[in-house]
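User: For my dataset I need records formatted as: sequence, then structure tokens, nothing else. Please produce one.
Assistant:
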Amino acid sequence: MSWTDERVETLKRMWTEGQSASQIAKVLGGVTRNAVIGKVHRLGLSNRGAEGEEVPVAEPVLAPAPEPLRPEPVSEPEPPRPVPPVAPAPMAVVPARRPIAPAGQPLPPQPSANEISPEALASQREVEKRARRLTLMELTERTCKWPIGDPATEDFWFCGLPCAAGKPYCEAHVGVAFQPMSARRDRRR
């Protein structure tokens, strides 16, 4: 369907008479309501009153421009404060990680089930007797981070003894924390 001069004149007449876009589309035939609305906008007929007269578009109201900010007078400038020199942070020593075995390769040797025993638990209790009893803020990467006690009480602390190589805990707590799968499976039965 094309917009012929005759069809455009019919659209203009019906629009100024106050007909709806749907009514105009029915009379013209072969066009949709949206096509009529689009043509009305392109022709500049989109504003109309109740009797079909043009409705003037209100001019936008502009707010007055804000006044420029004026700096407040300063009686005397403050002398610059000396900045204390900052010492460079010490370089962190990262322990070497064990390589991960690729798929299909045998796993690295694991501790055997006989290494986890009641004696290991007893040695853990002995270690806790000579532990350093550190707070969270006192821990470093070289101290054992094994928590002891209830964190909700005042009597909560961390072991603090020297860590085992590449582990977050001392030797006694490593024996408790890192148990082979077979020992855990046997204990569940």
